[in-house]
Amino acid sequence: MAALVLFVRAIDALSNALGRMLAWGLIAAVLMCFTNVVLRYGFGIAFIWMQDVYVWLNGAGFTLGAAFALRADAHVRVDLFYRPADPRTKAKIEILGTVVFLLPMLAVVWVYTWPAVRLAWMFGEGSQNIGGLPGLYLLKSCVLGFCAVLGLQGLAQAAKAALLLGGRPEYAPHLTGGLR
Q1: pLDDT tens-digit profile of 52-106?
Q2: Nearest to 79 by CA among 64, 67, 93
Q3: Cα 28 off chain centre by
């Protein structure tokens, strides 16, 4: 059980660190977008690379930030059965949802994304916009990163549920209504 606790703590720490870093990236995206709009409509100056930066930061933030959102229980759920359920039932739903829905969905996304990402890296794919940024392969890789970090956080959430079922509810406050 100690190994499971260590796994949960490590993945939660990874998700928190990544989420905080990406939050700053999203602030940078908003500032870049604002600057781009002011330059374009205020001074008639346009930089395509600047537009690529904020679009790419936004894409990276939303794909790689999914694990942070899952850890914070900020994802949409169908609460017909979940919300009124007792903590043990919630734990069982959490494990079932991870194994039956989340992990298979991520596997499908990975399998269908991998060839496009591999080709993007092989060709050093860049922006399709003239004057845009090189390195579009990095942004496409974020989809694989999404699968990896969301899968790890899903496993950590399922591990928390298993710990609750094993008599350790202090590791699953999201299921017991406690604070994080």
Answers
A1: 999 999 999 999 999 999 998 887 776 777 778 889 998 999 999 999 999 999 9
A2: 93
A3: 18
d(CA 84, CA 179): 18
The mean pLDDT of 141-146, rounded to a whole number, is 98
Please choose, from the candidates 14, 11, 18, 21, the residue with its C-alpha nearest in 3D space to the C-alpha of residue 171. Answer: 11
Token readout for 125 is: 């794919």
Give the whole-angstrom CA distance, residue 43 versus residue 128: 25
CA 17 to chain centre: 12
Q: Reduce the secondary structure of 79-133 to three states and give it as a string.
A: HHHHCCCCHHHHHHHHHHHHHHHHHHHHHHHHHHHHHHHHHHHHHCCCCCCCCCC
Q: How many CB atoms lie within 10 A of CB 90?
A: 21
